[in-house]
Design goal:
565 residues, eight-stranded mixed β-sheet, Immunoglobulin-like, globular, mainly beta, 5 helices
Length: 565
């Protein structure tokens, strides 16, 4: 009994001591007392759309790139993207001290969620776990961008090539690279800045393409507006060893520069043998064959010449009736000779497997493996005397093979209604087929039709898919009416129907638009459609998540964007 009483007394004493030490249960908590904002940014993913307050259907990209705040003592400077439409209703992302609480106008702020108006300087309060607080003033300024920067040979004759330029907008730094030994002390740069932005160097205003600058040391430009917050852009010049490369990268001929060609010619560049081979069936035997090539060369190559005469891409013509030797001078002075040869192809590979199989099944004697024998195709006649090759399918005036230009472009077999496409694409460009009134095909992988400018029959053009996939994209500028035929409905995701004489793209009432589609029209014509209640207007407006771009009459600029839900 005595033993029990002694144990009870000891236990009572221990409890009393413990209770006395823990009278305040928070006495042992250690406060860190920190109330700092460590990071502060406006992320484009949270602040991407600006809605016009006068027209809710008009929306623009707002913060189209991230804006990272610069924390300087108790001030945070944010340089908003130059073209941001609004600084109101932004949701900043931030990182603060552990166990602290961040307030704005008395309300707790949530990272990436709380909206704030930054149109004027505003104050955040960060309260530490020991109740000590610190205020941060956040100020927004429009960034002062340098959109482009170049130091060109045409402005600086002592350069052997245009300087390589790398613009780091985030860090306001421009790296300019020159060949080793270049005199950097007096160079004229070109730059593009907004109209309301001024650029100075050591207090002197700078003019693009005129002002001379010494780039032998780091150049610090001051870029400013009238908001009292100039930015410093640094330009650092560096040099590299001369480069030995002297290759043709591409060597082609476009119809834009060579109207006598039916289609563009694509050269086959062999960098091992230094030969460019150009397949062109119908140019064989023509002399002189004066054509203007379009070519690209190794990045640092200095010059391209023929018989010591400088050749300029897309400008200098040559006679390609016989092989021509080009000389390319590398940055280090080494010269490589290249031979350009035109040849007459005997066959070409058919990439479309449906059409390839059709030819093998019905016209096997015209095929060699997966390639069509050109001479046999030219001389073959279908039932009724229809030419294999023409200026298009269902053409008013079928033309003979005289327009055929080899492996670079392939036209259709009119009778079978199987369209030809530019090899390696899923686009059918029929704009050259001025007499074409109807196109028919089945089981093809074509996704895009370009029928712009085709008059059709009395202004109406017919697209008839008899089986298989229907096109999702139609480019039909200045086509008055489009009639879609076939057993399957046409679901478009893109329609370019610009022009002032367009009237109806849904003559067969078989067209609808997928969600998220886009339609391009000339604004003046769209306004006329709305006034006259054109049925196509209702179709566009009733489509889910539809974007309508309205262009100027020249087709060079979007003047208004509408969205329909």
């Amino acid at each position: 009994m005595t033993h029990i009483l002694k144990s009870f007394s000891v236990l009572t004493l221990l409890l009393a001591l413990l209770y006395g030490c823990k009278e305040n249960a928070f006495d042992d908590i250690v406060y860190n007392g920190k109330n700092d904002i460590l990071e502060f940014s406006i992320l484009s993913e949270n602040n991407g759309i600006y809605q016009d307050p006068d027209d809710e259907s008009i929306q623009h990209l707002n913060f189209y790139k991230d804006a990272k705040g610069m924390i300087i003592d108790n001030k945070i400077i944010v340089l908003a993207p130059y073209y941001a439409k609004s600084w109101n209703g932004l949701k900043p992302s931030f990182k603060k001290s552990d166990r602290s609480i961040m307030y704005h106008h008395g309300e707790i702020q949530l990272n990436g969620q709380s909206e704030v108006d930054f149109s004027n300087p505003t104050t955040y309060t960060v309260v530490a776990d020991n109740d000590e607080s610190k205020d941060y003033i956040v100020e927004f300024y429009k960034e002062k961008p340098i959109f482009s920067f170049a130091i060109l040979k045409e402005d600086n004759p002592n350069l052997s090539f245009d300087a390589e330029v790398e613009i780091d907008s985030s860090n306001r730094t421009i790296i300019v690279e020159f060949s080793l030994g270049t005199n950097l002390s007096s160079l004229i740069p070109r730059f593009v800045i907004p109209d309301d932005v001024e650029i100075t160097l050591n207090g002197a205003p700078q003019t693009s393409g005129t002002s001379t600058v010494d780039f032998s040391t780091v150049v610090e430009y001051k870029v400013s507006m009238d908001d009292d917050y100039p930015e410093t852009w640094k330009v650092l010049a560096r040099t590299r060893e001369p480069n030995p490369e002297n290759d043709f990268l591409t060597f082609n001929f476009s119809t834009a520069k060579n109207p006598s060609l039916f289609a563009d010619l694509i050269g086959e560049v062999d960098t091992v043998s230094h030969v460019v081979r150009v397949a062109s069936y119908w140019t064989t035997g023509i002399n002189p064959l004066s054509l203007v090539p379009n070519f690209t060369i190794s990045k640092y190559a200095k010059n391209v010449s023929v018989n010591a005469v400088t050749q300029i891409s897309d400008q200098t013509a040559a006679n390609f009736a016989s092989p021509i030797v080009y000389s390319i001078t590398a940055d280090d002075g080494q010269i490589q000779e290249w031979t350009v040869i035109f040849y007459k192809p005997s066959k070409f590979y058919i990439k479309d497997r449906y059409f390839r199989q059709l030819l093998k099944t019905h016209y096997a004697d015209l095929m060699e493996g997966d390639s069509l024998l050109i001479e046999k195709a030219i001389n073959n006649r279908l039932v009724g005397g229809t030419d294999w090759w023409g200026d298009g399918m269902r053409n008013k005036d079928d033309l003979p093979i005289g327009s055929f230009s080899g492996i670079e472009f392939f036209q259709a077999i009119p009778l079978l209604g199987i369209p030809g496409v530019q090899l390696g694409t899923n686009t059918l460009d029929l704009r050259k087929n001025t007499g074409l009134a109807e196109v028919v095909y089945w089981n093809s992988n074509i996704d895009t039709y370009n029928i712009s400018g085709l008059p059709g029959t009395n202004g109406q053009f017919i697209i008839n898919v008899t089986a298989g996939k229907t096109p999702g994209r139609i480019i039909a500028q200045n086509v008055k009416e489009i009639l879609f035929r076939g057993p399957t409905a046409y679901i478009l995701n893109y329609l370019d129907y610009r022009g002032l004489n367009v009237n109806n793209f849904n003559m067969g009432s078989t067209v609808s638009f997928a969600s998220g589609s886009k339609v391009l029209m000339t604004k003046r014509r769209w306004d006329e459609w709305e006034q006259s209640a054109n049925p196509c207007v209702a179709l566009i407006k009733s489509s889910s998540n539809m974007t309508l771009e309205l262009w100027n009459e020249a087709g060079t600029q979007v003047v208004e964007t509408k969205r329909f839900n």
